[in-house]
Amino acid sequence: MVLENALVKLFSPSKRSVGTPISGVSSFFGFSGFRTSATPVSQNQALTLSAFYNGVEILTNDIALPSKQIYKKDGAKREAVHNHPVKYLISKKPNQYMTAFMFHKMLGQYAILKGNGYALTERNPVTAAIKSLQLITEPVTVLVHNAQLFYKVKYKDGYKIYSSDDILHIPGFSFNGIVGIGVVQQAAQSLGVALKAQDYSADYYDSKGLGSGYIKTDKNLEPTAKTSLSTAFSNVLSNQNKWSVPVLDEGMSFHPIQITASEAQFLLTSKHGISEVARWLNIPSYKLKDLDNANRNNMEVQEIQHKQDSVLPWVTKFEQEYNAKLFTEKEKQTHFVKFNLNTIMRADIKSQAEYFSKMGQLGVLDRNEIRALLDYNPKDGLSEALTPVNTQTMEQVFAKLKLIEEQIKSVNNGN
Q: Average of pLDDT values for 48-66?
């Protein structure tokens, strides 16, 4: 809930020292700034790189795709809770503007690009129950006062200050564990090089590979003649008319300063840029459609690594933030949110079939539970878990031995 009266005065401009803004930039490891390219790189500029755009799209989709479920712990049991009001918000429609998929995708996108994703938990003024989750797109300043966090949101008509419990905060890379730093800010130098390579490639093709060069002649020219010749030739080459043809006097020849064929190929394919983007976003390069040296076996391994190294850390941030702020103090002892990463397997029918087959054979899931995960109706006789005959408990082994002994005795007595 908005702390309208007390906190607005507490954090007013005249008392800035009371509420101290927290920045994501720190003197951690002895430095407070970042080495960036000469030209600053913005989020919009970075997204013009196809590899970077594709990487952000893939990562945010993988964050948003898993189904969201609330569970309640009861001793050793875990029971899915389907009627909890938060369940609808995180799995169906968090607010009047977007679906759960778009909400989680946008929250992840803000966290990756800008360093911090924020959402307001709107509550019923009487019951304090959460009624919606509103994505915050306005500028946010994180303040600390008396070892507590507050969030100052700048709206068009002024600003409002919220307590930490009312703001869902998903940070990206951070120096202090509170405020994150956008990947574009961190990767400005690398992305700047890739952008310049992209621009250079465009210029190279526009100039038909001519670029700059020099005119060679055996004759001696006066300085004014050299200047006039250089200006005239440059004007012809820079003319946008593709049919411009310069004419040189007798004995003169033009020698372009060109990049080598291998350098041109490097700029064309942007392999270096793809690898750099993959590292900054922490995703396999094959996800960016770089299929060199890729095959079925190593792609399967990389897909597992992608879930473990790329998606799972982000999902864990969401789960822990939801657990801390979407439940009452009493519910926090027993309730928790779970993102089901197996949802990502829906597009891979073979892997999905192998997974459910193993879970069923091991008795982890019964067949009706598997049908439920596939959105199929239950069937009679499929609710009992299967037990592999080659893996049994000692109790089962001794029971079978006892049965065999009784059968042998029965046969002997019959004789």
A: 87
Q: Would you state the structure tokens that stand for residue 185, as one six-digit string?
A: 């800010």
Secondary structure, 3-state, the chain = CECCCHHHHHCCHHHCCCCEEECCCCCHHHCCCCCCCCCCCCHHHHCCCHHHHHHHHHHHHHHHCCEEEEEEEECCEEEEECCCHHHHHHHCCCCCCCCHHHHHHHHHHHHHHCCEEEEEEEECCCCCCEEEEEEECCCEEEEEECCEEEEEEEECCEEEEEEHHHEEEEECEECCCCCEECHHHHCHHHHHHHHHHHHHHHHHHHCCCCCEEEEEECCCCCHHHHHHHHHHHHHHHHCCCCCCCCCCCCCEEEEEECCCHHHHHHHHHCHHHHHHHHHHHCCCHHHHCCCCCCCHHHHHHHHHHHHHHHHHHHHHHHHHHHHHHCCCCCHHHCEEEEEEHHHHHHHCHHHHHHHHHHHHHCCCCCHHHHHHHCCCCCCCCCCCCCCCCCCCCHHHHHHHHHHHHHHHHHHHHHC
Bridge partners of 135, per DSSP, are 119
Percent of the chain whose pLDDT exceeds 90? 30
Is residue 229 within 8 Å of 215, Cβ to Cβ? yes
The pLDDT tens digits for 323-359 are 999 999 999 999 999 998 877 665 566 666 777 787 8
Phi/psi at 96 (5° precision): -75, -5
pLDDT at 72 over 60: yes
